[in-house]
Amino acid sequence: MATSSKNTYEKKKEEYENIAQEKFNTILAAYRQIVDEINPNHFKIVDQVIGKEMKKAFDVEKAGNIFKEHLFDLIKKKFIKTWSDLDMNEKIAILEYSKDNFKFDEKWRPTNKSVEAQCNPHEMKYLLNQKEFLQRQIEFQNEQILNIVPQIEEARKHLKSFIEKRNQISLQVKQDLEKLKEAENELAIEINETIVQN
After folding, report:
1. Residue 73 covered by a domain
2. Is there a contact between 38 and 69 (Cβ–Cβ < 8 Å)?
């Protein structure tokens, strides 16, 4: 970047960085919107697995909100790291500066090359950077899926185990109540016989 261009860029750098920050916020807001679209209907399977007693203690909507916040927090951290690693603020600032100061001139850069010849490598570099950024996003999303699926499966196992234990306890209580009822009947018969004999 030539000295005069560099001075012009430095004067408006804050303005360009603000534009970069707006784009950052827009993308992050889009991630937030995607996560917010997760609703209690996605957790209906939980309602089908747990019993009435468990539903009183297990708030599906609250659990869903906790899951959403945890997921968004993971996405946000990874996105911030990727944005920082690629130095996107600086790249977007330079791009905005280039857009503002573009002049249709065969020698708009001191290389004696045409505008088309000068733009193509720059465009290819931008596309390669964009491709790398998107690949990182895909890898991150796949990583999140691989991490979340085992957690869901483990939670299902815990729920199944809990329901089985609950059913066992319910059966035991029922059997104990029947035995108690039988004992009461036997006691009542013995008392009646004692009264009749006396």
Report:
1. yes
2. no
Domain total in the chain: 1
Q: Which residue, chain included where needed, has tokens 């468990």? A: 54
Instruction: Report pLDDT for 32.
Output: 92
Residue 101 CB contacts under 8 Å (≥ 6 apart), including other chains? 5, 8
Structural domain contains residue 44: yes
Residue 178 lies in a domain: no
Least confident of 22-31, 65-74, 142-151: 142-151
